[in-house]
């Protein structure tokens, strides 16, 4: 797994979304025991911080030290630099394993094997992600064009798994459930532009060309957006399974 997010760790910590309470309200009652949870590819620890309120111990892993440097310290969260597919954890350790907006970057079969190794029998694995932001009929086509055309050559091929909502990634677990949620925020044009700068494709473009591609979009997006904050919506998709 390549590190695609260290270069924009500051922006990521400030401008990436967190997840709605409804997601956790649905997920957590399905976990039989709340002893240990593993938040894989934790980034700046936003999911781990929620899990820490419900589990005795949370192990949070990522391959980016820059991301983990932005994570808040918590007495029952342990942060580790380790790939998703090969962890230091003992077999049958976890009641819950979560992956938010990251499983598409993993080596899929190796990750499934690791989940089976470290999950307790009957443990829950939950993987979720979110699609392209939705704003309004006059702004959505502009963001879509930037996503598909301007950034198209700079997206890693694995990004297609977000578009098809993980349909082609293995999930060989029992009692599989699918669920949808929505993240709703009020954003200014400036906030949206900085969110776009967290994209891995934008970081790749900047590395190759030493230019900020979002700057080319800024004037038109800001004009269409106006000075007021607007409601934005991120569609969230989730799949849950039981490790037997």
TrEMBL record:
<dbReference type="InterPro" id="IPR051052">
    <property type="entry name" value="Diverse_substrate_MTase"/>
</dbReference>
<keyword id="KW-0489">Methyltransferase</keyword>
<feature type="domain" description="Methyltransferase type 11">
    <location>
        <begin position="39"/>
        <end position="125"/>
    </location>
</feature>
<dbReference type="GO" id="GO:0032259">
    <property type="term" value="P:methylation"/>
</dbReference>
<dbReference type="InterPro" id="IPR013216">
    <property type="entry name" value="Methyltransf_11"/>
</dbReference>
<dbReference type="InterPro" id="IPR029063">
    <property type="entry name" value="SAM-dependent_MTases_sf"/>
</dbReference>
<keyword id="KW-0808">Transferase</keyword>
<comment type="similarity">
    <text>Belongs to the methyltransferase superfamily.</text>
</comment>
<protein>
    <submittedName>
        <fullName>Methyltransferase domain-containing protein</fullName>
    </submittedName>
</protein>
<dbReference type="Pfam" id="PF08241">
    <property type="entry name" value="Methyltransf_11"/>
</dbReference>
<dbReference type="GO" id="GO:0008757">
    <property type="term" value="F:S-adenosylmethionine-dependent methyltransferase activity"/>
</dbReference>
């Amino acid at each position: 797994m390549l590190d695609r997010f260290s270069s924009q760790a500051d922006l990521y910590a400030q401008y990436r979304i967190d997840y709605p309470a409804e997601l956790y309200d649905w997920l957590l009652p399905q976990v039989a025991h709340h002893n240990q949870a593993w938040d894989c590819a934790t980034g700046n620890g936003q999911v781990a911080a929620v899990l820490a309120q419900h589990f005795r111990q949370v192990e949070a892993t990522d391959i980016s030290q820059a991301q983990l440097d932005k994570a808040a310290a918590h007495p029952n969260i342990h942060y580790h630099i380790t790939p998703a597919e090969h962890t230091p954890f003992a077999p049958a350790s976890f009641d819950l394993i979560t992956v938010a907006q990251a499983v598409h970057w993993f080596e899929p079969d190796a990750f499934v094997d690791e989940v089976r190794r470290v999950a307790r029998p009957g443990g829950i694995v939950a993987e979720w992600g979110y699609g392209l932001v939705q704003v309004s009929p006059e702004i959505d086509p502009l963001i879509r064009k930037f996503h598909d055309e301007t950034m198209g050559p700079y997206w890693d091929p694995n990004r297609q798994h977000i578009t098809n909502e993980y349909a082609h990634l293995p999930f060989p677990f029992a009692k599989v459930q699918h669920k949808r949620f929505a993240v709703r925020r009020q954003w200014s044009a400036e906030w949206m532009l900085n969110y776009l700068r967290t994209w891995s494709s934008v970081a790749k473009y900047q590395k190759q060309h030493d230019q900020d591609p979002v700057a080319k979009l800024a004037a038109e997006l800001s004009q269409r957006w106006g000075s007021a904050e607007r409601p934005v919506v991120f569609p969230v998709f989730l799949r849950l399974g039981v490790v037997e």
